[in-house]
Amino acid sequence: MSVSEEFSKPQNNQNLSEAILVDTPLEDPKDDRLGYAPFARNLAEALRNIRTEDSLVFALHGDWGTGKTTCLNFVLHYIAQMPEENRPIIMRFNPWWFSGHGDLLVQFFRELLKTFQKNKLESIASSLATFFDLISEIPEPTGLGKFGGKTLSAVLKKIGKEEKAWEAREKIKCLLRKQNRRILVLIDDIDRLTVDEIRDLFKVIKAVADFPRCTYLLAFDKSVVVEALKETQGIPGEAYLEKIVQIPFELPVPDKAALRKWLFEQLGLIFADTPEELADQIYFANVYWDGIDHFINTVRSIKLLTNTLKINYHPVKGEVNSVDFITIETLRLFVTKVYHLIRFNPDMFAGKVDSYGVAAQHAKDTLKAFHEEWVKQLPENDRDSVKKLLARIFPKLDYVFGNTIHGDSEWRRQLRICSSDIFPVYFRLAVPEGEIAYSEMRTILMLGKESTAFGNKLLGLVQQHRPDGSTRVSAFLERIEDFTQKDIPKEQIPEILQALFDVGDKLLVLEDEGRGLFSWGNDIRIGRIMFQLLKRYDSQEERFKILQKVFRDGQAVSVIVGEVAVLGQQHGKYGAKEKDPEKECLVSLQHVGELEEVALQKIKEASSGGRLLELPHFSGVLYRWRDWESEEAVKRWVAKTIETDQDLANLLEGFLSKGYRQTLTDRVGEVKWCLSPKSLESFLNPVEIIGRCKNLIKSPPEWLKDMKKIAVETFIKEFELLSKGKSPNDL
């Protein structure tokens, strides 16, 4: 079965995906996944068939985490299946349990004594206890000065103890020869001890290794032990070890295919309910063979990776691309420095490479220099795999390593880590507060089958705010562009557009207004969505019929008027500097004319119903009314509307605009309100209202506050500047 098939295979036992793989060795060979059982069976047979009375020391060498303890457990399992008369007496000693808690010599003899007592070898146990008491009292060899005036008596005492210890030792050896069963001592986790403890343990083994009918099976990472024993008693560690171990074995290398199969089974459980579009099989296969496989060499590496994924994937499930998430977690566990490099340098990894211009070339040179530097610092064994892996998940690096430049049209929709918008989610392990999660997007889009439900949801989002003060509806309108090309069913497009042109005016809130040249408000977002959805229809006639209906039935006058104006600008109208090619225009020029009539009718209905003055972007609506009917018609309505001071203030508020002023030394820009009297001249004479405005400020009524007050004050200020021959921009 291929990597991609195994990864995507449906799983039935969903509870397994919640189980953490504890780092507990296996005990029963039937659970063997890596081919250790046959080796352990043969080793058990070899231990049983020892015919000599001499002591033997076996060693099982294997890197840390490769399964030495599992192999020892399997050996014990097979020994337990043997007839009792052929079965050795087992003593299992794990020195790591006693690490830091006293002399290992004491602990070892204690365990050996218990083993003899448990197996009813009381005479041997008694002699062993005597032997231990004697050798524990024998002082270490020292200089004569230590004994001072008692040197001779101390030396004689030591000699006496040594002779008695020798006698006790010989007695133990004699008793061991008389009993039929061998003693098998298994010592594990030696490589976890400190250097001093490793040396002490091998001194213990050396001291008792010649007991007859005793077999020792030691499990350790040879490189660790050799390093700890180096120069012990003046000989190299390898030579010292060879003096103790007669029969060394290497733990079988785990079958790589078996390791992969187990890993893929675990991944299949973890990602079983991940949406198909976020778990691309071919992409996973490419990523796996490019780099992940390089780091999967032991049981422990699989447990480490899958346990991490089980914990960390849940908070972001459905918000990240599962293949990218597996990859970045692999890097975090096995190449930690590279992970942190990515995390704290998003601009060097996420996004695309700029292609043109002097600044773009400088950025590309900087990019290459940055990546070439850290790649040189990687271990040579990991370098090629890490480079390939990163080039897969970060297309920007394809330029660094291969001069290939990619676009980014699908990255955000696929929740790829290389999308600058999605990148932070992989490191926060949660969707940022106030953002629209991928799963929530899918749920909302399901409402697109019916315009009223979809519109009501948008109105709900406009009441919810993000930490920066903007509304969640702005986040939704930005995110929906990831779905407009193909994810939204074509039959739902008219319903979604109907909702936008029903409630669109209520979405044009101040909190979401763009700030500066490189930002925009919800009106622009709605326009982009409209264009992207309608482009999925092949003919201008189809698009026109949809727009004609949704505009006629819609209630969002400002949004409708604004979009009709944009459609006209494609044909060179309303101040556009040039026309778009006819085939790129959403509708024909004739269609624009018919839609203008629909929009004009909407304006007239709003003006007669008293709603026009309340519309967002009110001034823009008046300009289009002037264009589509006449300046005189608008003037008549304005003259009648501003008969009251409150409606005059309302009208001025509709012409108020916000800008920002910032000097080179400012960290934050200052809000600058603008209301040019010249912008009013198409609809009224500013001179005729300046006196009324000054009186309002001089004796402000209770209702003159907030934006209305700002509008009146700004109008007065700019009127006076113009009267003095100055420009309001001089402020």
Structure description:
The chain has 731 residues and is mainly alpha-helical. Helices cover 55% and strands 5% of the residues. It has 32 helices and 7 strands. The strands form 2 sheets. A 5-stranded parallel β-sheet has the order 2-3-4-1-5, sandwiched between helices. Strands 6-7 form a two-stranded antiparallel sheet. The longest helix is centred in the first third of the chain and has 28 residues, at 151-178.
Strand order of the largest sheet: 2-3-4-1-5
Most strands sheet:
5 strands, parallel
Mean pLDDT: 85
Enumerate the spans where pLDDT stays under 50 for 5 or more consecutive residues.
8-18, 141-150, 664-668
How large is the share of residues in beta strands?
5-15%
| Helix residue percentage | 40-55%
Secondary-structure class: mainly alpha
User: Helix count, per DSSP?
Assistant: 32
Total number of strands: 7
Write a concise synopsis of the structure shown.
The protein is mainly alpha-helical. The chain has helices at 3-8, 36-48, 68-80, 104-118, 122-137, 151-178, 195-208, 222-229, 237-244, 256-270, 281-295, 299-312, 322-334, 336-343, 346-349, 358-376, 380-393, 396-402, 425-428, 438-446, 451-461, 472-479, 493-507, 522-534, 540-553, 557-569, 589-608, 618-628, 631-641, 645-655, 687-698, 706-723; strands at 56-61, 89-93, 183-187, 214-220, 247-250, 657-661, 670-674.
